[in-house]
Give the backbone structure.
Amino acid sequence: MLAETICSAVSAAGLGIAAVTAYRKRFLAATRIAAYSLIPIGLVLTGVVQWVTDIAFKPSVWLGFGLLGVAWLLFMTTRAIERRGVGTRKERKAAAQAAQRGAVAPAASVPSLGSGVPADRPQTKPKQEAAAPGEDFSDIEAILKKHGI
């Protein structure tokens, strides 16, 4: 009941401001103000205000929103863990069985949670070999000359 009264008062005040604005010969601004001031009373008449107040002041609704937030957080956590390369239960089980048979070393089959590298990728990058002293750098020299270096 209080929300409906407040919305009605806001609409009446807005229409009053629109009338004053129209009196000052600013008809376009007055029409815009009148349009904005009719929105709160329209929301009251359609029942939207009652629906919003029912949602805002019920603890069970907020509990429901909290549970939805927890569910979303759990989904995002599991997705982040999967992307880190830990793998699914089936992949871990297959890797453990292969390790028991001796086909794959246990350290290479299942990465730790902190490594962030999937088991199918190499753990270290290969080092690039140093350039040989007699290698041709003519293309680099051409680029440097082009830029005046």
About this structure: The chain has a mean pLDDT of 82.
